[in-house]
Design goal:
single chain; mainly alpha; 2 helices
Length: 44
């Protein structure tokens, strides 16, 4: 069971990183965290 789960996670990680979707996801998450902390969305 754990082997299958780890393979599934690895598969989607590789898929997202090859499509640059992982970077977009992290960028959006980072922006939301900054908004929740009452900071500007963009780092200067």
């Amino acid at each position: 069971m754990w082997l299958l789960l780890s393979l599934l996670v690895y598969y989607y990680y590789r898929k997202w990183t090859s499509l640059s979707e992982f970077d977009l996801l992290l960028e959006r998450l980072h922006g939301r965290v900054r908004i929740n902390r009452n900071q500007k969305m963009d780092r200067v």
